[in-house]
Amino acid sequence: MWYIIGLGNPDEEYKGTRHNIGRDVVSALAKKFDLDFKEDPKAKTHFTKGSIGKTQSMLLLPDVAMNNNGLVARAYVKSKKDAKNLIVIRDDIDMGLGKIKITFNRGSGGHRGVESTVKQIKTNEFFQLKVGILPLTPSGKLKKPIGDKKVIDFILGTWKPNEEKVIKKEIKRAGEAIETLINEGFPKASTLFNG
User: Fold this and answer.
1) 46 catalytically annotated
2) How far is residue 108's CA from residue 88's CA, in Å, rounded to a whole number?
């Protein structure tokens, strides 16, 4: 069984924000495979199960704030062996819009949602699918906001009209990366989708 968690905040006010891109990827994947979410009040999440290719997978949308989502991971990921089949999908403010990257056994990079997961399941040995959210300057350089308040305002902001087309492609590509990872393995997925 694979466990695929889309990080974000569940409240309506955060829908469509940059910080919720992980939830958007999981929702799109569920839609592609015609899977309907049900509530698991005990684990504080919405979940759905189904086959992605030949493999059974559980898709999870936590009903807790981003910084507490590790509680949901802990409810399902009961061992280090299970953790190796965990994919956490999250935004990355250090990567340009349109980029995705799959990693394994890496740190949080300051992402509190990932920190919560590591703390709760007591290992870094899981996959992260990082989705770039940072706009680029016309010359192709990253345009990162400076200062805590500006960073928070940026990640909790919604996509600009000119970004929406890019993000739709990025969500689709992230779903394809997950399918490749599950069905063909990490080396193939990282070769095809990283960078």
Assistant:
1) no
2) 11
Residue 52: partners with Cβ closer than 8 Å, 6 or more residues away? 2, 29, 33, 178, 179, 182, 183
The model's pLDDT over 148-195, given as tens digits with 9 standing for 90+, comes to 899 999 999 999 998 999 999 999 999 999 999 999 999 999 999 996
**Considering only CA atoms, which of 71, 181, 73 is closest in space to residue 127?**
181
Instruction: Quickly count: other Cβ atoms within 10 Å of residue 80's Cβ.
Output: 12
pLDDT digits (tens, 9 = 90+) for 64-109: 999 999 999 999 999 999 999 999 999 999 999 989 999 999 988 8
Q: Give the residue from 19, 81, 84, 26 showing the smallest Cα distance to 58.
A: 26
CB 126 within 8 A of CB 120: no
In 3-state terms the chain splits into helix, strand, coil percentages (rounded to 5) of 40, 25, 30
Catalytic residue of the set 18, 19, 46, 90: 19
Amino acid identity at 155: I
